[in-house]
Structure prediction request, 158 residues.
Amino acid sequence: MKPFTEESALLWATGRCAQRECCRQEIAKKLRDGGLEGDIIERLLDRLVDENYIDETRYARAFVHDKLEYDHWGRIKITQALRLKGISRNDINAAFEEVIEEEHYREILCHILQTKIRSLHFDPNDREETYKATQKLVRFAASRGFEPELIFREVDDL
Prediction:
């Protein structure tokens, strides 16, 4: 990547933010990688926020929607990813309230559990094999970031 000037950085950042939702941290990293200094980066980021190119609440909503619908992540994993990107807890909670409907969220968990159970080869009449399969399902759903209480409830229903 060739070094940015302040003008070229602004053009690049506005183009990037117009194409897709970005958060401050993503743009700041790219600008640092482009050789800009901290005070210039902060000034550019403030301008992008003022001109509504960067809106972290909007970014959080888009991120939650995409990770839930396309990657089938649960709340825990989505929250961790957004916190790593520097998104505030209030923006994350607001995004969850706006985007996630409880029934749909449970349907997604149920769908990924049903898909996973098809890949497990076990005899449902063998208690030990059933126990091992249940543990695999629980670990799988937990690795996707779903809440333990919800996982156990859905696994019991299966």
About this structure: The chain has three domains: 6-50, 56-99, 102-157. The CA atoms of residues 61 and 158 lie 31 Å apart.
